[in-house]
């Protein structure tokens, strides 16, 4: 699990451990990884391997895969979860700022997919890849343009790899989460004071944000053999958020129930 020391990566890892998996967590900050490893080891001793890497650097990625094979003997699954993001008007971004997000999200996902995929193909072992996208990978979104572009690339990579590597018994799927509060995301996307002006829950027809366990359930399913016939799929998990805000007439939610009798009468009268 890339980015497995914090946030959603940590939650997914914890759930996978509870289902009997052994996990490898990797990210840039070894101190964060060690802290997570020590915390999880209380319940799952010897089942967590932590190794630092920058997903942008292919030599780091190759080292993670080699070290993981040395440690556990094999690797069956890959969760491309590491990401970088922050809100900003696009015209304020430097080329470096754009590049850093594209490199972590898209290049990082490519680096791990390529390195582990080559190994699986060489060893003739099956595998499953799960990429963490987001809903705006499909719709696009202002103010997170590098992330939207990179996640769009991840969705395309997911489908393309699924098509090409099915013959090697390698599946590749993605999930597209809506809002699931984490420190990493909220520090960069929901600055203090924002809640006065925007209530994220109001954008979601189910009127709440996602629970980490709900995402972990989906991830576990898509990695497991229960989903053996699913590949190249991107599953949205957002409480209906994107479809709600995209729908032409969803704004009619704002009309008080009592007004519908008058509206109906008006429409019927016009028909006559
Ligand atoms: C404008 C910014 C900026 C900001 C950084 N930069 N923050 N520009 N506004 N807020 C610019 C810097 O000035 C620099 O450009 C370039 O970006 C690289 O910044 P560094 O700090 O040198 O990069 P680095 O140390 O590698 O940090 C990467 C990072 C950081 C992405 C900027 O935020 C990070 O480490 N993020 C990891 C965790 C994360 O982002 N989690 C959120 C995931 S949530 P110059 O030109 O000045 O050198 C998500 C989806 C959520 O992905 C969807 C919710 C619904
Ligand atoms: P997070 O806690 O900030 O997770 C991001 C992780 O990526 C961190 O552990 C970070 O660790 C790691 N990372 C960043 N740059 C890296 C690099 N160059 N090399 C290796 N690791 C790197 O945020 P999160 O909310 O849990 O996000 C997890 C995933 O969910 C991301 O893919 C994100 O796009 C996606 N997502 C989140 C939400 C949400 O609402 N939270 C919604 C949609 C999609 P280091 O700093 O130690 O490197």
Largest sheet: 4 strands, parallel
If helices are DSSP runs of H or I spanning 4 or more residues, what is the number of helices?
11
From the alpha carbons, calculate the radius of gyration and give it in angstroms. Answer: 21 Å
Shape: globular
Record the strand order, biggest sheet: 3-4-5-6
**Poorly predicted tracts of residues:** none
Number of distinct beta strands: 6
Distance between the termini: 63 Å
Average of the residue pLDDT scores? 97
Strand proportion: 5-15%
List the SSEs and their pairings.
Blueprint: H1 7-18, E1 23-25, H2 30-41, E2 48-50, H3 58-72, E3 77-80, H4 95-123, E4 127-132, H5 136-139, H6 145-165, E5 170-177, H7 183-189, H8 194-197, H9 212-223, E6 234-237, H10 241-246, H11 259-271
Parallel strand pairs: 1-2, 3-4, 4-5, 5-6
The structure holds hexanoyl-coenzyme A (HXC) and NADP nicotinamide-adenine-dinucleotide phosphate.
Properties at a glance:
single chain, 272 residues, alpha/beta, 4-stranded parallel beta sheet, two-stranded parallel sheet, 6 strands, binds hexanoyl-coenzyme A, binds NADP nicotinamide-adenine-dinucleotide phosphate
Q: Can you characterise this structure?
A:
The chain is an alpha/beta fold and 272 residues long. The chain has helices spanning 7-18, 30-41, 58-72, 95-123, 136-139, 145-165, 183-189, 194-197, 212-223, 241-246, 259-271, and strands spanning 23-25, 48-50, 77-80, 127-132, 170-177, 234-237. The longest helix has 29 residues, at 95-123. It has eleven helices and six strands. The model has no long low-confidence stretch (mean pLDDT 97). A four-stranded parallel sheet has the order 3-4-5-6, sandwiched between helices. Strands 1-2 form a two-stranded parallel sheet. The N and C termini lie far apart (63 Å). The protein is 50% helix and 10% strand. The chain binds hexanoyl-coenzyme A and NADP nicotinamide-adenine-dinucleotide phosphate (NAP). Hexanoyl-coenzyme A binds at residues 83-86, 88, 92-94, 96-97, 100-101, 134, 147, 178-179, 184-185, 188-189.
